[in-house]
Amino acid sequence: MSAKFLIVIEKTTKNFSAFSPDLPGCIATGATHEEVEERMREAIPLHIEGMREAGIDVPPSSVTENIEA
């Protein structure tokens, strides 16, 4: 079963950074919006796997609806 997790992407002066409020410590950076989004798609499953291996409960996703603007 897959879950959707909220990610926040921010533009900085030199690149883009992203994090997931649902998964503390799950972050990524990239030169473009597309690159940082792809890196987060890779980072989230790895982060969840690490949490499970460490015996940390994975929090439920706060995503209830997809709205893109």
From TrEMBL:
Pfam families: HicB_lk_antitox
HicB-like antitoxin of toxin-antitoxin system domain boundaries: 5-67
InterPro entries (UniProt xref): HicB-like, TA_system_antitoxin, TTHA1013/TTHA0281-like
Database matches in PANTHER family: ANTITOXIN HICB, UPF0150 PROTEIN SSL0259
Name of this protein: HicB-like antitoxin of toxin-antitoxin system domain-containing protein
Origin species: Rubinisphaera italica
